Amino acid sequence: MVDVGQKASTSRVAVASGRVLLGPKVFDLVRDNQMKKGDVITVAQLAGVMGAKHTSLLIPLCHNISLSRVDVSLSMDMESNAITIRGEARTTGQTGVEMEALTAVSTAALTVYDMCKAVSKDICITSIRLDAKSGGRSGDYKRRKNPG
């Protein structure tokens, strides 16, 4: 791991997002809370929070960070039969929380897949990415709408 011992503690925030493409049949079952494993949205939201809290156990060289806030939200997009996931992590510390936000989104997406795979194997997890970060030596970052 990188030594961050000499770095000043600063307020840090990271926001990540991703999508799970379900298809119409699975989308309707999730929307209507009819999946056999239960409430997909609530379980995935909780799994995302747990994922953020356990990031350093999953990513070998990632620092164990004391998180002050983790927020995971899932929204259903009827037009594309997809779920959009947003994860935000906050801390005051010596290193950023990008990996925690990304792990929150990834874990939530994997949970959606797990809870829906009995109905369809065509589910696709896509577009997991860092959308914004603030704090730290490298400064602020915000993803452009159309990177070129």
Low-pLDDT runs of 5+ residues are none
Average pLDDT for all residues: 94
CATH-defined superfamily: Molybdopterin cofactor biosynthesis C (MoaC) domain
Number of strands: 5
Element-level helix/strand string = EHHHEEHEE
- Largest sheet, spatial ordering of strands: 2-3-1-4-5
Give the count of structural domains. Answer: 1
Which radius of gyration do the C-alpha atoms yield? Answer: 16 Å
Helicity, as a percent range: 25-40%
Describe this entry's structure for a reader:
By secondary structure, the protein is α+β, with helices and mostly antiparallel strands. It has one domain: Alpha-Beta Plaits. Helix content is 30%, strand content 31%. Strands 2-3-1-4-5 form a five-stranded antiparallel beta sheet, with helices on one face. A hairpin with a 6-residue loop joins strand 4 and strand 5. The longest helix has 19 residues. It starts with 9 loop residues before the first strand and ends in a 6-residue tail after the last strand. The mean pLDDT is 94. It catalyses: (8S)-3',8-cyclo-7,8-dihydroguanosine 5'-triphosphate = cyclic pyranopterin phosphate + diphosphate. It comes from Coccomyxa subellipsoidea (strain C-169) (Green microalga).
